[in-house]
Design goal:
Blueprint: E1 4-9, E2 23-28, H1 35-43, H2 46-58, E3 64-70, E4 75-80, H3 82-87, H4 90-106, E5 114-117, E6 155-160, H5 163-179, E7 182-187, H6 203-206, H7 212-217, E8 237-241, H8 254-269, E9 274-278, H9 289-300, E10 314-317, H10 319-322, E11 329-333, E12 336-340, E13 351-352, E14 355-358, H11 360-382
Parallel strand pairs: 4-5, 6-7, 6-8, 8-9, 9-10
Antiparallel strand pairs: 1-2, 3-4, 11-12, 13-14
């Protein structure tokens, strides 16, 4: 079977702040093509890859000045001052690894790279490995690369949300979920005594053995319109999302981290259920947007929130990242999960004519990226 190599060519943002959209060029390798031949073909895109790395640097807060890629020598040099290097914590280095990993994997050139800081210290490299999910999937079409099969039997899904979730469902998400055999129930304002409460600080009051049994049994919908009947069982998947005011975390994210960490024990005790956190969407103005980006990265990274979590029933979709720029994504790339930050913008790009609710374009983009990931995660959960 021929392998398909996808190169995502991204033009960096101009100083004026205007950026070109992502251009995706699919390059089909010849049978039995060698690693050297693949690397030679990638050399022509070295400029674009370095531009992507530059954009990634703009979205970080680690004091990184530049990342220099040399495809011929298979090296990545992270230019950083001694002072900023000494400030890096272990989880910061994990985030750096994940960011570089996503970019190299997107360009299909991740094999065998040596990564080091400008002071000569090696980055304990997981940059050369496969994506953090680590699970392969069966292709549905041999000639178009690894893709995700749809769910064969109906799966009941519950979505806990407010108005942004309502818009998301109605902008195509509900339809796409139904097309892939996910029946959607949802809670909204007015659902029992809990529907009004979806702030980050409210999640511990949801995820306990008093409230969740009712959530598992709720098959009604307050927002979406299903075209399929529910399965004769409880909800298997629980999606939960706070609304956009929760993206303004202030100048510290320690409180948010403690809240999210407190939920892990409940998820670990209920491995028959699949839990999907949707990160709070961004606003147009956030007091400390760099801290919001830091929290989102920590939630998504398997070396962050879920570093010590052993279950295969907890996943995170970075709704925040997807909505901050055209070139930012959380999606499947060549059948593998990729979290891609190509644009350092940390606030809402897809506003509704000045309103902080994401517009239909942003909601549809997020739906198209989320549903294949959900199927992929569900296969991991089942497998």
């Amino acid at each position: 079977m021929k392998r398909l190599f996808m190169i995502i060519a991204i033009v960096a943002l101009a100083l004026s702040g205007c950026g070109d959209a992502v251009e995706i060029e699919e390059i089909e390798a010849e049978p039995n093509q060698t690693s050297a031949q693949i690397t030679e073909r990638a050399n022509s895109d070295e400029y674009e890859i370095n531009q992507t790395l530059s954009d990634w640097v703009l979205g970080t807060e680690y004091g990184i000045e530049e990342v220099r890629l040399n495809i011929e020598e298979k090296t990545l040099e992270i230019v950083i001052s001694d002072d900023d290097y000494n400030k890096l914590a272990d989880y910061d280095q994990d985030d750096i690894v994940n960011g570089l990993n996503d970019i190299l994997i997107a360009y299909k050139i991740s094999d065998g790279f040596v990564t080091y800081f400008s002071n000569g210290e090696m980055l304990e490299s997981r940059v050369n490995e496969a994506p953090t999910s680590g699970h392969e999937v069966e292709p549905t079409q041999e000639e178009s690369g690894p893709q995700i099969e749809t769910v064969s039997e109906t799966v009941n899904l519950m979505f806990i949300h407010h108005s942004v979730g309502e818009n998301w469902l109605n902008a195509g998400l509900n339809e796409m979920l139904n097309e892939n055999n996910f029946h959607v129930a949802d809670t909204y304002y007015g659902w029992r005594e809990m529907g009004d409460r979806t702030d980050t600080s409210d999640w511990p009051d949801w995820f306990n053995d008093e409230v969740m049994p009712t959530v598992y049994k709720e098959l009604g919908n307050m927002t979406g319109h299903n075209t399929i009947e529910p399965a004769t069982s409880e909800n298997t998947i629980i999606m939960f999302k706070s609304c956009y005011p929760n993206s303004d975390v202030g100048n510290s994210i320690e409180d948010e981290k403690q809240i999210y960490l407190s939920l892990l024990s409940y998820f670990a005790e209920h491995t028959d259920k699949m839990f999907v956190l949707i990160t709070p969407p961004p606003m147009q103005r956030i007091s400390h947007p760099e801290k919001t980006r830091e929290l989102a990265n920590w939630l998504v990274s398997e070396d962050g929130w879920r570093k010590d979590y052993d279950g295969n029933n907890l996943f995170v979709f970075d709704f925040y990242n997807v909505l901050t720029a055209e070139d930012n994504h959380h999606m499947l790339v060549d059948g593998e999960e990729a979290h891609i930050v190509n644009d350092g913008s940390n606030t809402l790009y897809y506003d509704s004519a000045g309103d902080d609710h994401p517009n239909d374009e942003g909601s549809l983009k997020a739906a198209k990226e989320f549903v294949p990931l959900l199927i992929y995660w569900y296969q991991i959960f089942e497998g």
